[in-house]
Amino acid sequence: MQTNEELKQLVKEKYGQIAEQSKTENESSCCGATGCATIDYTVMSDDYTKLEGYLADADLGLGCGLPTEFAQIKEGDTVVDLGSGAGNDAFVARSIVGEKGKVIGIDFTDKMIEKARANAKKLNFTNVEFRQGDIENMPLAGNIADVVVSNCVLNLVPDKKQAFAETFRVLKKGGHFSVSDIVLVGDLPEGLQKSAEMYAGCVSGAIQKVEYLSIIKEAGFNNIDIQKEKRITLPDEILKEYLSPKALEDFKTGESGIFSITVYAEKPDACCGPGCCN
Asked: What's the rounded mean pLDDT across residues 108-112?
């Protein structure tokens, strides 16, 4: 079994490769640089193109939702984007917070940070910055963010409890987050987990939805709400490699599966620390 540090290194290497690919290449090669098939399917990502602030150069096709659409961001807010990539969600958030607000993107991968900073420079944005850092140990002071967003990233973090504890720490009292992520419901058929990992590295660290929501509650958040949920449908061409015809049909008609969820939660207005206000 790989250690947390080994898993992080794999993520860094993989997303370093992804940073150098186009959105089309990423969507057609299984959510990144894995190259598991020649089928061109947009399995995870939602369409950003109609959102204000959208920048094509920052869209690598890696998301699994539109957290900024649900995040209740207001003009003047300070927003932190976890796993900011080339800046896609950060630039959309910046269009909402305006000149009086601020957006801070955090990413683990050198090449993603370079790409995001180049995009910000191209747009002459002075209130969007990108910091290299680990979501389990954010390079941020506590109580600075009104809103935290993240798009299909926290499932890649080995220690999700620490990631949500850090999210709690950086949020102001009364602040909130809206996070899109991949979770599992029920037991996947034998072999399918491997298929999912190949088709989207996004799924390799996914945990059960019940456990995911429990971690959020244990971190001290309240008013937890699933704002959006959709089943991720892997193409039959991939599933047939791992499942018999009957197993494939049972999986497609059963309740178990891979889901994208967008989750909202709030840090209490008055609280002494994680877990004290549950």
From this structure: 89
Contact 128, 159 (CB under 8 A): no
pLDDT tens digits for range 5-31: 655 566 655 655 665 554 545 544 434
Give the residue ranges of DSSP H helices in 98-188. 110-122, 160-170
> 62: left (phi > 0), else alpha (psi -120 to 50), else beta?
alpha
- The structure's pTM equals 0.82
Q: Which fold would CATH assign to domain 4-266?
A: Rossmann fold (3.40.50)
H-only helix segments in the chain: 4-18, 23-28, 67-70, 88-97, 110-122, 160-170, 192-199, 209-218, 236-239, 245-253
Residue among 12, 48, 15, 47 nearest 31 (CA)? 15
Identify which of 1, 266, 8 has the alpha carbon closest to the alpha carbon of residue 159.
8
